Amino acid sequence: MVGMSKMFKMVLLSLMAISMVVVMAGCGAGSAKESKQVIINTNADEEAVAAMEAALKAAGYEGQYQLQSMGTSELGGKLMAEGDKIEADLVTMSSYFLDSSQSQYKMYKDLAFETGAMDSYPSYYTPILANTGSIFVNTEVLKQKGLQAPQSIKDLTKPEYKDLVSIPNVFDSSTAWLLIQAIISAYGPEEGKIVLRDLIANAGQHIEKSGSGPIKKVEAGEVAAGFGLRHQAVRAHEKGAPIDYIDPIEGNYSLTESIAVINKNSEVTDLAMKMAEAIIKDARKDLITNYPVALYKGESTDAVNKPAKPMKFDQPLTVELLKEHQQFFKDAK
Fold it and tell me: Nearest-CA neighbor of 325 among 177, 187, 193?
């Protein structure tokens, strides 16, 4: 009986050992499976993320990726600090951050598909959307305050607009960079600093962290005018809000957000490239609805969504230039 008991214990221990090996192998397989997921980092807002995820689902990639949303400053900081050691396999990001991180690290893989973009872009990225700046006003507040509608950014520096203007802060929002590009291009650094100083003074407590902050304040009637994203003002106007959009004399400047694949030379890199193609081919129909700027051949937008004075800054947009313009903003205070 004692021998039988020992034998039983040995068999039981053997079975337990085999079970542990099987469980560990299963866990290992699960980890391997998880490790093959594409990690997507994006600074896009909710509408853009929804469009991209719908495209990935339609292409059969559901469950094969993890999407992590971050602010532009956070993701930009990671790109510039970590380079190709970043966890992400695929990123959508403000194009100037992609340019600057590529210049420093050579971290992106050339796109392996034809994009069909209208304009020329570097071989390693292509835009998913573009945002354009403009002035917008609350027509009811203008009437109440006896104000003439502004035709330029400089008009917003007039004394009658004191505490009635809202603008974004360039340290928090890239939308504000569109404002600064317009001011510097039109007036140069010396007069431009005076224009910006007077604009900041008129804005007072209405300098917003979010690029969407000014349109919200204008819609709410807290201020008469603001500078921000043109398509938001168009949308508010079409919904019947007392909002008008004005293409300023200084011009409409735009920023693109683009998609790029981190060059990690792995199976995941190849899968990330396929996902990038799916997003460009299939998400644009939704993206152009929310961000109505035509970027690819065959795309078009309504006349109302075409800015009257499209402009491009005369220097390449880089993180370094952004820092210069942030200092310009700081010095104007």
Answer: 177
Instruction: Calculate helix-pair angle for 230-238, 213-220, nearest 10 degrees.
Output: 30
Would you state the structure tokens that stand for residue 179, as one six-digit string? 């404002």
DSSP state of 201: H
Contact 170, 321 (CB under 8 A): no
CA distance 166 to 202: 9
CATH number given to 35-129+256-306? 3.40.190.10
Domain boundaries, the chain: 35-129+256-306, 131-253+313-332
* Res 278: pLDDT: 98
Q: Report the Cα 41 to chain-centroid distance in Å.
A: 11
Closest CA to 173 of 220, 215, 204: 215
**How many Å apart are CA 224 and CA 230, to the nearest integer?**
16
Q: Is 131-253+313-332 in the same CATH topology as 35-129+256-306?
A: yes
Global pTM? 0.83
Which residues is 229 bridged to in the sheet? 133
Structure tokens, 201: 């003074």
CA distance 43 to 221: 29
- Report helix angle 319-332 to 95-105, nearest 10: 120
Q: Which fold has domain 131-253+313-332?
A: D-Maltodextrin-Binding Protein; domain 2 (3.40.190)
Residue with tokens 């309504």: 302
Give the pLDDT of residue 73. Answer: 85
At 120-130, the pLDDT tens digits run 999 999 999 99
Model confidence band, residue 236 (pLDDT cutoffs 50, 70, 90) = very high
- Strands 252-262 and 108-109 come out as antiparallel
**Locate tokens 């910006």: which residue?**
196
Residue 10 confidence class, pLDDT cut points 50, 70, 90: low
Question: Residue 161 pLDDT > 50, yes or no?
Answer: yes
